[in-house]
Amino acid sequence: MTTIQAGIALKNILYLTDFSDFSGAALPFAIAIAGNYGAAVHALHVLTPPIPEVCHEAIHADEELANAEMLKIGSQLAGVAHDTAIVRGGATLWPALEAFIRQHNIDLIVLGTRGRTGIRKLLLGSFAEEIFRCSTVPVLTIGPDVRKSEHAGAHFRSVLFATDFSTPSLSAAPFAISLAEENDAELVLLNVMPQSDMTHHAVALAHLYQIVPGDSRMQCQPFAIVRYGEVADRILDTAAERSADVIVLGVRGAAKHLGAATHLEGATAHKVVAHARCPVLTVRA
Fold this sequence. Notes:
About 45% of the residues are buried. This protein is about 40% helix and about 20% strand. The chain has a 10-stranded mixed β-sheet with strand order 3-2-1-4-5-10-9-6-7-8, sandwiched between helices. The longest helix has 21 residues, at about 55-75. It is built from 11 helices and 10 strands. It has 2 domains: about 10-140, 3-Layer(aba) Sandwich (Rossmann fold), CATH 3.40.50.620; about 160-285, 3-Layer(aba) Sandwich (Rossmann fold). It is of the alpha/beta class.
């Protein structure tokens, strides 16, 4: 098994907001990560297209409210390099968002969610589904349970990286290692198997440790775990047991399955995002 090269540079972070409390919970994470990496934060709000029945005055009032809310966000970003933008979207969010990502060379998207049962009920409604389907940029999601849980805020003292050793899942390893190094954090490496297999248990443990480059092992304190059962449940259980401050997952593209984690062709990543009590970083291969 090939050792991962862990160097990651984050220069531009997109903070996507709809001005809700759920979006607000994600802002400290964008600011903290920007501080750790010396990155700039680009705060973006996408206005939905007006319906024909809405008068010009109502559209103008909506834009004025968005401008006022963005000024508040700008004041919170005063300590880091930043800019703010409000754009008008079309029938779907992604074209406007994709153009913004290209224009600003975005390396990471940070957003909050309100959904509890899966990606289709995340913040921004069906728009969040587009983000997970389309984004080749890593997405840090602050789920609804993060706001009411006990965690370290934007300080990642424990980073949980779950992998099935497939190429898509391993694409997230450099981000997990980098987060652990930047925060002097413990790095928990997790592999979940459907059922107990002692023959492969030791092999899996060895492969987990091999993920971390030798010069990173002292700094990020890797700790490998092999669990058995339903993948999303075991990821969530392990995150709780190890007091993880962020979960990192590699996900496949969405040609057939929206944001499906490599562990299953179902909604593993969706379930983890919806129920995790810490932020979840998804990295699409």
